Records
---
Amino acid sequence: MRIIVAAFEETLELGLQKPGQVVPMIPTFVFGWPTGQESGDYLALDLGGTNLRVCLVTLSGEGKFELTQTKYRLTEEQKQEDGSKLFDFCADCVAGFIRAHIGDKDGSIKEGQELALGFTFSYPCTQDRIDQGTLIRWTKGFGAPNVEGRDVAELFRNAMAKHHLPVTLTAIINDTTGALIASHYVNPRTKIGVIFGTGCNAAYMEKVEKIEKINHLNLLDEDPEAEIAINCEWGAFDSFVHQHLPRTKYDQIVDESSNKPGEQAFEKLIAGRYLGEIMRLVICDLIDEGVLFLGQNTYKIEIPYSFDTAFLSLMESDPTDELLTIIGLFTFFFGLETTLAERQFFRALSRLIGRRAARLSACGIAAIVSKKGYLDEGCAVAADGSLYSKYPGFADRVHEGLVDIFGVKGKNIVTHHAEDGSGVGSAIIAAMTKKRRDEQKFMKC
């Protein structure tokens, strides 16, 4: 683990120095921390791996907020069809939400009212400013054509223009950056934000003087002490070269059969999209060897990605001696009968896969902690995502990993559940950006 952390830290540093690196270390143009006194009504749009979410966030200052939201399910077809249709769907959902929750009884917005919107777009983008983002590559199973290499802000604005709504796209952010900012708004000890869900990522605040690749922007002329949030996109760590992460043959199959072979190497070992598939491949290997389910029809479990990561959570937390939850899972979803010994093996295997994911996740956190020198004084790490919040023991295993890496000082690094980064964080960043622009306009006047 310590060897992985050292390689990880070197990779993060390289991403700050040069553009076009495997781990891109993207400057987000979110400057500095929130004051905690931001206030007002802001819209947030979150395009996640599973759902689309529209939020109205009312910031009240003093770290307080209120949230109204609606979720819309994304189909696999929407993830793969033309990008213009995907953004049209996003705009339709925003328009419908505004009609339902904002303005007068007929859904109209008061004359002169302008709503600032923060767009949480949780895929790697390069940015020249905060309200622009060019998609580097899709992750989390998305493959919508005609989006990679294009400005997603422009695509969304074009879709929104069809509805003639007084909404201004103020900021494009990553959900990890949002989690970092939202959690700091509530708890100023928060220095790192991480996502462990369908995908994985991290964000932290870096001094502008340390980011050599943006020296040409002359940002230090405005503020020599300026800090900027960095969206690491660390799911790509060890991609293509595969020199640092220990991969099994099952990991290699997951990679080679994915829609992005060779890419997102770190993510494919630890993210929720892949853990169930890793376990399914092990089971199928044992079926082929004649070890499991002799004489039974196994075609359902042989379907790729038919074994959900949530099944691992359920198996790990099965409290019964006979492991009745596991009986139900295999019977209901796959039509397979299991012996007690098989069920015990399945639970042990799920624990092994989950523990590895958590300990590798700890390596990523440790790399940022080491790079920033947070170990002695300690810091809070805001963690979000279904893997962190729902997988039994995941957080404890991350903490265990940090202690194994750093020794007793590892206890100074404490993870906690993040505030809603893709909703609240997006709104706070929209508020910070609006305030910064208003101040710049005032200075010019």
---
Amino acid sequence: MSELLTVAAESVLNPAFLLAALATAVAGLMRGYSGFGTAILLAPVFSTLWGPRAGVPIVLLVELVVSAQLLPRAIGEADRRMVVPIGLAAIIAMPLGSLVLLAADGVSLRRAIGALVLVFGFILLSPWRYHGARPLSLNLVVGAISGLLKGSTGMSGPPVILYFLSGPEEARRHRANFILFFGVIGIASIIPPLLAGLVDAPALLRSAALLPVLLVCVRFGARLFHVIPVAWYRRFAFGALIAAGGIALFG
């Protein structure tokens, strides 16, 4: 019992955890509003605070719970013919990405995560979008790249988000597609780090302590979807991504 209390104190009762909780609140607002944002924002922050091997499993755990919460309503609104093949390709490629997480140098991987988030943030803010066709073969390639990123960094979002946003669908359909995709890969993503022993007591304690913050903010962000204009959200999301990416790259 005393050992558990010691682990809990070391894992939660410190300034690093307060920063993690603040980032989690912002990520929850982003996820509830747009359907994405949890892993993209939290992976660089958690990797900086605790290192990629400790931080990425926490991202995967909280992402799994959030996806389960949002998934039921999104299933009927999403484009399942496009999203499901992308999700399956991501699941197949994910174990290869997990090998990178286990083998890569922690500092180098953290900086790579930060650089990826920064590049994604600038692309998301720019007017550029892919406007070509979306055949099954391209869906599978995008899914495979996303799976590699999910396994190695905890973030599957950047290629999928840019790809989904290239379509003519309305914002509600985009949001449902994101939620379905992250729900499809959520369970599979936690298996490799679980087998590798990365889901340890500190990871579980931090996840359990951060989840209430995330779930409350996701619900609040979902309400804001009907109130806040997309232009305002884009500025907020861009600022959060640049801050998180900068922390991981230069911290």
